[in-house]
Amino acid sequence: DNEIKKLYISGFSLSEVAQKVKMSSSGVKYILLKNGIRLRNRSDAVRVKHHKRLDSYGCNLPKKVPVTLKKLYTTGLALYWGEGSKTGNTVAIANSDPLLILTFLDFLRKICHVDERRLHILIHYHNDQDEKNLIDFWSKLTKINKKQFYLSTVHSKNKKNSTKGLKFGTISLRYSDSVLLKDILEGINHIKVTSEVFCE
Q1: More confident residue, 6 or 53
Q2: Are the beta carbons of 193 and 186 closer than 8 angstroms?
Q3: DSSP string, 76-101
Q4: Cβ pair 146, 26 in contact under 8 A
Q5: Among 164, 47, 63, which residue's Cα sits nearest to residue 111?
Q6: Closest CA to 84 of 57, 104, 103
Q7: Contacts of 76 (CB under 8 A, 6+ apart)
């Protein structure tokens, strides 16, 4: 109850709190009302969202990268070119390979200097796998707090979607930042131009 109150009072919406504590929005609402917390109306919600946006900082892809990080810079862009989401306002890359996820996470941390609190993970797994073990594995590997994991998505297993090769499930690593996404896509376009020139 205290965690729910703290999250809501700090500015998170009902749905955001529900995702963090893995409850339904109606369950979160019930706990808040039971504890005497006044729910925000529409105008209050817009105002809080505005302040949260001002308080958080947007990341940028640096124009100049140290020589020691150039390989990571190029690798990160190449990974996102192949595996990342190109639409919306969130940097999101999905894969089942722990090394690929770690490499892109290094890119976000060492090149983009992201805010650790805004990194999130969504796990996709089959119903013959243990969700808790998967969360433990990915949290330990990525050093991302379990509280920053979204509610996992479970899929029914059949002969067509065997878990062979998906020992750790598939995860979507997410960072909500439209500015950073725009920079990454521009960086990818630069790689495309360079590749086209090289191939001519």
Answers
A1: 6
A2: no
A3: HHHHHHHHB--STTEEEEEES-HHHH
A4: no
A5: 63
A6: 104
A7: 103, 104, 106, 107, 108, 111
Quote the distance between the C-alpha of residue 80 and its chain's center: 13
DSSP designation for 10: T
CA distance 187 to 54: 26
Please identify which residue in the block is written with the tokens 């290094």.
Answer: 106
Contact 171, 121 (CB under 8 A): yes
Q: Which tens digit of pLDDT belongs to each residue from 138-158?
A: 999 999 999 999 999 998 876
Q: What is d(CA 180, CA 87) in angstroms, rounded to the nearest whole number?
A: 12
pLDDT tens for each residue of 69-82: 999 999 999 999 99
pTM: 0.68
Q: What is the percent of the chain where pLDDT is above 90?
A: 50
Please tell me what DSSP assigns to residue 143: T
